[in-house]
Amino acid sequence: MNLALFATGDGNTPLSPEEQIELIPDLSTRDELNEWERQNILEAANWAFAPKNIFQKDMLTSAFVCELHRRMFNATWKWAGMFRSSEKNIGIPHHQVRETLAVLLGDTRYWLEHQTYPSNELAIRFHHRLVAIHCFPNGNGRHARLMADVLIQQQGMPVFTWGGTNKNIARPGEIRQQYLDALRSADRNDIQPLLLFART
User: Fold this and answer.
1) Element (H, E) at 65
2) Structure pTM?
3) Which of 8, 52, 74, 162 has the fewest beta carbons closer than 10 A?
4) Contact (CB, 8 A) for 77 and 24
5) CB-based contact 170:140 (threshold 8 Å)
6) Total structural domains in the chain?
7) Helices 62-73 and 30-48 meet at what angle, rounded to 10?
8) In a domain, 167, yes or no
9) CATH code (residue 54)
10) Has residue 11 been placed in a domain?
């Protein structure tokens, strides 16, 4: 196994040895893995934004949360769409994931029904809390961003730009650091930097 495939940096979730061996394709470099995952995620986004799905599927269910993750990574990881069963450097204890996710989905339904927040803020608050739960072994940020994009589009608004439409948040650099800093501000109850970043 090529350990360079699984090197982690700031804001990345390390995979356990058991999770690493669940890689499906035979890849040699981190760049190959990133590209493989990117293609997998594009297919999932096409599915999520298809007219028959975007306005007819109830995304605020555990089933949809898992199905979207599965479609994002099903050509990459055998554990795609499965809640994590190990502790990570971020996120709640793994045995609390199901219950805490159910609370978030219920809260978001309430926010929508009662118009608790403007649409952009609602979707970004949802995104932040989903990242904080960290439901899956990996891919949580990318999954939470796509979930937020689906949620905002279901409210009739354009998807978020997440620091610029041609930027790759997954790659180390200034854009990723801005995103991580904005998430940390949200951890301190200041949602504005993440809201601004999402619409930059």
Assistant:
1) helix 62-73
2) 0.94
3) 52
4) yes
5) no
6) 1
7) 130
8) no
9) 1.10.3290.10
10) no
